[in-house]
Amino acid sequence: MKYFIATVLAVCLLAGSVIVWGAKPYSQAAYRLEFKQGHCSGTAVARNVILTAKHCFPTNEAITFKIGERQAKVQKFVEDGNDHVLVFVNIQFENIAVISKQMPRIGEQVTYTGNPAGLNQLYRIGYISAYLEGQMVIDVNGYSGDSGAGVMNKRGQIVGVISMQFHTESFGMMSGFPLAFTTEQYQDAGVSIK
């Protein structure tokens, strides 16, 4: 009985430590983006800039949308050509995520907080399975609404963005293309890279 209790405690502590490293600091920089036609996910990467998937904004017209509970107005879009966009908005964020210079290796653990199927801020843990057809394929469950969520390494740095589901005939995983913003685009937005 003592062994059983000790084992359960060890598992709970281990599980808690995994959640803790993933929850700080970037989960507080993850947001739900609400539009009239649906929702996406995004991550604050500068005082007034959200990184998300470009397909969440089908046009480059200035629009108003909700970020969490706040109403935001788009001031500018900066695209990288890989289904990513830096969205400059008229509100400021306290918690900001950092972009990693290094892509994760196959087998590396990653996390993200997204909004699948109307659910709010779901935290997931997955692993980099492959790089196929230019996409970073992540072994993790996901769904529509996760688009734009920042994929984080163990240091809490963004290594990618959820863009789509990678499907075969028998299974599906989440995937995204590498970030392709220029150094000048990051500097103009005030984004930190480490």
Helix and strand arrangement:
Layout: H1 2-23, E1 30-35, E2 38-46, E3 49-53, E4 64-67, E5 70-79, E6 84-89, E7 98-99, E8 109-114, E9 122-132, E10 135-139, E11 150-152, E12 157-161, E13 164-167, E14 172-176, H2 183-189
Parallel strand pairs: 7-12
Antiparallel strand pairs: 1-2, 1-4, 2-3, 3-6, 4-5, 5-6, 8-9, 9-10, 10-14, 11-12, 13-14
Describe the model.
Helices cover 15% and strands 42% of the residues. It has 194 residues and is mainly beta. It folds into 2 domains: 29-96 and 181-189, Thrombin, subunit H (Beta Barrel); 98-176, Trypsin-like serine proteases (Thrombin, subunit H). The strands form 3 sheets. The protein has a 6-stranded antiparallel β-barrel.
